[in-house]
Amino acid sequence: MFDAPTIGSTVELQDSKITASGVHVFYGDTHAIKDVNVNIAAKTVTAFIGPSGCGKSTFLRCLNRMNDTIDTCRVEGNIHLDGEDIYDRRVDPVQLRAKVGMVFQKPNPFPKSIYDNVAYGARIHGLARNKSELDAIVEKALRRAALWGEVKDRLGAPGTGLSGGQQQRLCIARAVATEPEVLLMDEPCSALDPIATAQVEELIDDLRTRFSVVIVTHSMQQAARVSQKTAFFHLGHLVEFGDTPTIFTNPSDERTESYITGRIG
Ligand SMILES: Nc1ncnc2c1ncn2[C@@H]1O[C@H](COP(=O)(O)OP(=O)(O)OP(=O)(O)O)[C@@H](O)[C@H]1O
């Protein structure tokens, strides 16, 4: 009874950074995302919530073509970043991912030094002309990720030697070093303790002054704390999208209400 299609899940186009329309995603015969229409606003944190398997991560990965790396995956529909079709064959996915960065559930630092982890994207994309410019990029990114103070005296040490929370902030520093316009975060705190979670949440709030942030989370408390907009997914449909306080206090769809009150999920 809950697998009903959804209507009217678009928001105002003003200040829209990403516009998705009529998006369907298939893994072979599995229809994982069904006709999703949504606008992601600039300089806003948008949370994707919903029960396990509803398609949150799949849709998130559409936004920087990460699904291109999965052989069986097929994406239909339109996704525009600042009015440009990101699935246009002229778009280089590597360049796209510099603009639309991603942080994963499990911290995944490269087996390199702290410095080289953060400098990686800047080097690939030729963002620094010399060593001192690269040093400045690395320092700025580590400061933004609230990690500079903890690592500035051991930049040559392996990134994998940091604590879990520090590794996740290192991955955030790596992602922000290329000055992305959008940062996608797939359950970025699920491997972290409450203190590290609080640090990352504070950081997310800070990042939205410069970027659009889209975060997949299983924690409704986290969605309520960090986001201004919330999208509720269910069985591949985007059921409801709106201002976070409204979604949590006065949802208009019974499926959303059932989820936030713990009756489904
Ligand atoms: N690589 C894949 N190959 C085949 N099917 C997949 C793949 N990734 C996801 N799926 C399927 O697509 C659907 C949506 O999965 P997805 O991981 O996007 O959901 P989710 O809401 O992020 O779930 P969770 O909260 O458990 O992480 C599920 O039915 C899942 O089994």
UniProtKB/TrEMBL annotation:
Pfam families: ABC_tran (PF00005). PROSITE patterns: ABC_TRANSPORTER_1, ABC_TRANSPORTER_2. One of its GO terms (molecular function) is ATP binding. SMART domains: AAA. GO terms for cellular component: membrane. Transmembrane segments: none annotated. Keywords: ATP-binding, Nucleotide-binding, Phosphate transport, Transport. Residues 13-260 form the ABC transporter domain. One of its GO terms (biological process) is phosphate ion transmembrane transport. The keyword tRNA processing does not apply. PANTHER family: ABC TRANSPORTER I FAMILY MEMBER 17. NCBIfam families: 3a0107s01c2. This is Phosphate ABC transporter ATP-binding protein, PhoT family.
